[in-house]
Amino acid sequence: MIQIKNLYKSFEDKDVLKDINATFENGKTNLIIGQSGSGKTVLMKNIVGLLDPTSGEILYDGRDFVAMSKREKVLLRREMGMIFQSAALFDSMPVIENVMFPLDMFSDMTLRDRTKRAQECLDRVNLLDSQKKYPGELSGGMQKRVAIARAIALNPKYLFCDEPNSGLDPKTSLVIDELLHSITQEYNTTTIINTHDMNSVMGIGENIIFIYKGTSAWTGNKDEIMTSENKKLNDFIFASDLFKKVKEEEMKELNHNRS
């Protein structure tokens, strides 16, 4: 579990994050949502240590990341897996070597064991047959699946995903969502996903944090989001006609059940 307490982040005279409080739970897909410029990317960068907060606490299972020494932070980062928006694979390396990269860097395993572990991870994302291919030979969705395999190679306790469905078609996005959700449950990871994808919100949003102008404006799950009376959240979620219709149908059914 990761807890954020009274987190502030300022750049010069501008407050980007203001008194953020949130809890990201084990074994659940935790989503951070919000408009562009709301501060959700800055929040994730603070959580993983790419930025230092101005004040506040970031607790990893009770351990305050902000107060840690440099060495302690390095050790904690070995418990993290990261999936970047662009997949961030090494074009010059075949798939198997991309997945082995964190094992080469941070494990004491033999080459044979590192290869075996990488193959297990590729098999988990249904890409074992592509282990000898290069990233340029793969589709965007396949590259994201390789990135997931690499991210879970070290059996991370914490998994961070920055816009994992960016640039993917709806069908492939659904595959990525289901894969992340199943891995989260299988490994009991604390998974945090930064996303704009409302299909992801409604599909795998077990714990959702809505960031509005640098504040944590709403917390709930994919079921509660449909009946929320938070105007700022509704303006964000139901901006499209499709989701407005879904909202209307949900409210009709709710009112019918009450009567």
> How would a textbook summarize the main sheet?
6 strands, mixed
Look at the helices and sheets and give the structural class: alpha/beta
What gross morphology would you assign? globular
Backbone CA Rg: 19 Å
**Numbering strands along the chain, what is their spatial order in the largest sheet?**
6-7-8-3-9-10
Q: What's the overall average pLDDT, rounded?
A: 88
Residue ranges: pLDDT <50 for 5 or more in a row? none
The portion of residues forming beta strands comes to: 15-25%
Report on the architecture of this protein:
There is one protein chain. This protein has 259 residues and is α/β, with parallel strands linked by helices. The chain is 41% helix and 24% strand. The protein has 9 helices and 10 strands. The strands form 2 sheets. Strands 6-7-8-3-9-10 form a 6-stranded mixed sheet. Helix 4 packs across helix 5 (140-151), helix 5 (140-151) runs parallel beside helix 6 and helix 6 (170-187) runs parallel beside helix 7 (198-204). The mean pLDDT is 88.
Summarize the topology.
Blueprint: E1 2-11, E2 14-24, E3 28-33, H1 40-48, E4 55-60, E5 63-64, H2 70-77, E6 80-83, H3 95-106, H4 111-124, H5 140-151, E7 158-162, H6 170-187, E8 190-194, H7 198-204, E9 207-212, E10 215-220, H8 231-237, H9 241-258
Parallel strand pairs: 3-8, 3-9, 6-7, 7-8
Antiparallel strand pairs: 1-2, 1-4, 4-5, 9-10
Helix pairs in contact: 3-4, 3-5, 4-5, 5-6, 6-7
Features of the shown structure:
globular; alpha/beta; 259 residues
Short description:
The protein has 259 residues and is an alpha/beta fold. It has nine helices and ten strands. Helix 3 (95-106) runs parallel beside helix 5, helix 4 crosses helix 5 (140-151) and helix 5 (140-151) runs parallel beside helix 6.
